[in-house]
Amino acid sequence: MGIKLSENCDSKFQSAYITLLSAPFQHRFIFSHRMAAKTKTSAQTDHKEAAINASLSKEDKLDLLREMVRIRKFEQTSLKHYLNGSIGGFLHLYIGQESVAVGSISLLGDDDHVITAYRDHGHALAVGMGMDECMAEVFGKATGCSKGKGGSMHYFAPDKNYWGGHGIVGGQTPLGAGLAYAVKYQGKKGCCLCYLGDGAINQGAFHEALNLAALWDLPVIYIIENNGYSMGTSQARSSAFPEEGLAARAEGYNMAWDKIDGVSIYEIRAGVQKAVERAHNESKPTLLEIATYRHKGHSVADANAEKYRTKEEIKTYMDKHDPIQFMKDDLIAEGILTEEDFKAMNQEAQKEANDAADFAIKSPFPEESEIFDDIYWEVDNNTEAGRTGRHFFHG
Amino acid sequence: MPRQITYREALREGLDEELAHDDNVVIIGEEVAEYNGAYKVTEGLWEKWGDKRLVDAPISEAGFIGMGIGASMLGIRPVMELMFYSFAYVAFDQMMNNAATCRYMSGGLVNCPIVVRGPANGGTNVGATHSHTPENIFANMPGLKVVSPSDAYDAKGLIKSAIRDNDPVYFMESTVLYGQTAEVPSNDELEDGELLVPIGRAKVKREGTDISLIAHGRAVITSLEAAEILAEKHNINAEVVDLRSIRPLDEQTIMESVRKTHRAIYIEENKPFCGVGAQISSMIMEQAFDDLDAPVLRITSADAPAFYSPPIEKLQLPQADEIVERALSIC
Amino acid sequence: MASYLTMPKLSDTMTEGTLVKWLKKEGDTITIDEEVAEVETDKATMTMPSFEEGIIHKIYVPEGAAAPLGATLALVLEEGEEPPADADTPPAGPETKEEEATEEAAPAEDAPAPAAAPAAAAPQPTTKPPKPKAAPVGSSTRPDGERVKASPLARKLAEERGIDISRVRGTGPGGRVVKADLDYLASGGGGGSDLGLVPESKLAGDETVGLSGMRRVIAQRLLESKTTIPHFYLNIEVDTEPLMTLRAKVNEASLANDGPKYTVNDFIMRATVLATCAVPQVNASFAGDEIYQYGDVNLSVAVAIDEGLVTPVIRSAQDKSIKDLAAEIKDLAGRARNKKLAPEEMQDGTITISNLGAYGVVNFDAIINPPQSAILSIGTIKKVPVVDANNQIVPGQRMWIGMSCDHRVIDGAVGAQFLAELQRLIENPLLLVS
To answer: What ranges do the domains of chain A cover?
Structure first.
């Protein structure tokens, strides 16, 4: 038997995962069961008492909430501009999943790295990228973080140890192993958080990466952000063996794994911290599955977001499993936040997002001359190699 | 007497020197370490450099090449061996999407200094799945570099340059050439103390005046044979140009040769459709049209999957006789 | 501050939406992200979230109505805010949208009625085929109108050297002019003469020439002949040395007596008549269910004139000497050139001679002149090396005679017998004058 960590995971998750529903479009990822089984407070208390959370100051906690609110406002504002036609292409919103990026990234140090898939705005803001450069990128403007070359799915900030932003489902998972390999090779005490969706676990590259990570003891932490749907296909319809859940795939590689309820940022921090310590201290990988929910469609172009999920299901999650609401209630109960504070926090974030949108709107589109920049390092840097031979073959 | 070594030894020397030159160089691939390399290119290197620098990978090309690409973003310089370049297709998303486009999609914030090397050739009686020649496929993707040395000298000089290059370089060798020898000076004979062949510079392997035989990889050797027959039997003095690097491409050397001989044939072991020769002949047509005295011809592998049966398989590849015959048709 | 709900882009291809149902009514309070309406797009019916907070003061677009992207759907006021004066009417859409709409609308107003529009836009079909482009003479076509095949390099060199490439003989594959051909010229190939050049064109540009009556008849009859008569072709080589020797003597004697000068053709005519008498099956016509065998040899002789070709007939030629034949053809040909022939003088021929020897033609195959069954094609007399009886190669003279036969009437062996007799007569020319 592998190294399954949380003994209480079983009962908690089985009720959530093992469901009975035969209709193909019905959701099998019901949190309400477990919410009923365990009271918020007790769950909250357990994880809040974990050392990594117990040490949080009042300001730290407010910062975590503020970061989640900022992400939500950024996403709502980008949605607004998508719907008014200013933004095109794909827009995969992170609304509802904010606790995952904010909670896990809040644990990282200088030699820790982050890489994710295409639903990458939340992680970008969480690592410290600015709203202006992020918003301008979805607008396709020259001032975007990737100069308008990558778009919504391809944010990068190597200076903040953020390595994208990758469009192909599962394609980033070997890269995550590689970042961890580099950290280990260079003898640093660091790790890589590599995020993926529940749909990505069925890609071959992911399993190859898991094997390499386990085989070579790479300090990588794979975090499955399980929002229940691979686009419009529920987990029940896409992934075998739902009884144990997705993280249990790690058993096949004798890798540590755990399941975390994403509604609580404290639980996320507590769970991820164990994995980070394992990576730092033992150079061992971990596979984590964080139960979360996207309030919106797979992307804004997902016209059927309300067909494969019932309105009632969506409403249940928005009302009862919203990580922002959850933390807000908790901080009010703790007495360090008031409704007014929260409103002000929202207004401030909304203003920041609106300002970012204004910045994006006012920014110029990239110059046509940019087309051939940023393809070859040697060409961009005008080295001898970059000047040797013809690199581009148009016209 | 000048030093003669095999193509395989030349590669090994290049790898060995680069392992010494840069601590971040690591060789990863199936059977590269303890087994000494499926084709013995890395023989002895694991014994010399140990587990950290030579890593035996499980059979999961998408996984370990993707891992190498990720590591390269953080400054590691992985040299990945594909036992056959045919296996690149298993890692296609990593090689085509991640290695080639991360730089662009990050607006230039990221680069992937990775080398993926291995034999890319047919003609060895192993059937279609192990006989692919994907140089045209990868050269189609901006962001990638594709190199294909035809002799030991270039094999050594180019592998060293490829490892030092800051962009992804896909380095395509030939199992048929591994045992062939060429003159490769030892470092103490060299002014710079080491052999570096720049990527993107072609080499005129045989000077001629009547027709340009332009080729890459093993087809260069076949072209040289054909050139000798043309000279001896037909009084035709062919020039042979070895591209060495397909992307970036030394178009200047190609055009200079065509402007001198007024006739050109592109010879490759690739398939014809959208092959390297299709690109080169199009460029010659565009840039040297008024210098052409005949249409540019292409000689490729037969447009069929590689035949298993050895006598037929040989016929699928460009032959010296075929080059001679086609050259005569335009001379 | 007043704000407006506008028609959102709910699908990537949507340009307008139908407001299916308002989920909120005037006076309701709404918050950001709250569902306010159901909108039918080109793909699906979707709920529309609000991006505004406040109270819906006025709904402008009723249920069931369609509205373009960005159109104002409702006015939202903050609690306690006074409605603006123009609250009852929706403001114009965003400026850019309005401009786009105007741009789209404008051409529609100016355009003709829809039915006429496609016709006006499409190219008008013309009744006449387009005038052929004047054939560029010189660089791209040969004097005979053939496209010049030349390598790009040869074209460049020709231009540099001021040589009309259309006149350069091509020796490359398929007759392509290549660098070597120009180098041959430059090296003074052919002793500095124009050997490497094709004669300069005397052609003018393209023009249409109407058909003369004669040309129309030639076209019609020869097409009919070639397409309905099963032609087959024979030819034979004739030693003309004895004939030429005899002719020289005959002419010497004749001229001395103020007689005519006999042409080679005169002898051929006589030989043809005699051979026809010997093998009369060639002197016949195919007539559907039967073959019509002629009793007389009416000899048609092809005569080239400016307008085309005529075939005057020497009637009952079997009764005429070579002297008679010579005199008669001279008269007929002369009048043919002056267009003085009566139509009946060109009728009732039974076999034809066509002689292109004067033009240096070595051999050819003429088309049968219907309803006849045979025509002879007479080539030029040429000095050639021949193998004599002692197996030595010696100088000789030869003429090729071709015979086109209607296989329905004449079989190969019959034609061959005829040609053999003709050869015998010509090679023994005394038989022609006796």
So the answer is: 9-362
> Does CATH number 3.90.1300.10 belong to domain C222-433?
no
Q: Give start and end residues of each alpha helix (H) in chain A.
A: 9-17, 31-37, 40-48, 51-54, 58-83, 98-105, 121-127, 131-138, 172-185, 204-215, 235-238, 265-277, 311-320, 323-334, 339-362, 377-380, 384-387
Is 3.10.100.10 the CATH number for A9-362?
Answer: no
Q: Which residues of A touch B250 (CB under 8 A)?
A: 388-390
**Cα→Cα distances C331→C312, C340, C342, Å:** 10, 10, 13
Domain ranges of chain C: 3-91, 136-200, 222-433
Note whether C315 and C384 are within 8 A (CB): no
Query: What is the model's pLDDT at position C3?
Result: 85
**Can you read off the two tokens belonging to residue A307?**
């067909």
Q: How confident is the model at residue B43 (pLDDT cuts 50, 70, 90)?
A: very high
State the Cα–Cα distance between residues C101 and C115, nearest whole angstrom: 23
Within 309-338 of C, beta carbons closer than 8 Å to B belong to none
Backbone angles phi and psi of A122, in degrees to 5: -60, -45
Size of interface A-C (CB pairs under 8 A): 29
Structural tokens at position C258: 């103020």
Task: Measure Cα distances from A144 to A147, A365, B98 in Å.
Answer: 5, 10, 20
Q: What is the pLDDT of residue C343?
A: 80
Domains located in chain B, CATH noted: 4-189 (3.40.50.970), 203-330 (3.40.50.920)
Distance CA A242, CA A248 (A): 10
> Per residue, what are the HEC states of A335-395?
CCCCHHHHHHHHHHHHHHHHHHHHHHHHCCCCCHHHHHCCCCHHHHCCCHHHHCCECCCCC
**Cβ burial C164-192 (10 Å sphere, 16+ → b, else e):** bbbbbebebeeebbbbbbbebbeeebeee
Report how far residue C305's alpha carbon sits from residue B20's, in angstroms, rounded to the nearest whole number: 96
Q: What kind of fold does domain C136-200 have according to CATH?
A: Dihydrolipoamide Transferase (4.10.320)
In this complex, which of A186, A205, A207 lies closest to B93 when CB atoms are compared?
A205
**Terminal C-alpha separation, chain C:** 132
How far is residue B308 from each of residues A265, B119, B123, B124, B269, measured CA to CA in Å?
Answer: 60, 18, 9, 9, 16
Judging contacts by C-beta atoms under 8 Å, the chain B residues touching residue A393 are 249, 279, 283
CATH 2.40.50.100 fits C3-91, yes or no: yes
Least confident of A110-114, A353-357, C41-45: C41-45
The answer for C 225-254 residues in CB contact with B (under 8 A) is: none
What are the pLDDT digits (tens) for C19-32? 989 999 999 999 88
Q: What is the dihedral of CA A195, A200, A201, A207, to 10 degrees?
A: -90
Are the beta carbons of C153 and B290 separated by less than 8 Å? yes
Cis peptide, bond prior to residue B248, ω within 30 of zero: yes
Q: Between chains, do C154 and B293 touch, taking CB under 8 Å as contact?
A: yes
pLDDT digits (tens, 9 = 90+) for B116-154: 999 999 999 999 999 999 999 999 999 999 999 999 999
Quick one: how far is CA C4 from the chain centroid? 70
Strands A192-197 and A220-226: parallel
Residues of chain B contacting A378 with CB distance shorter than 8 Å = 165-167
What was the ipTM of the complex prediction? 0.95
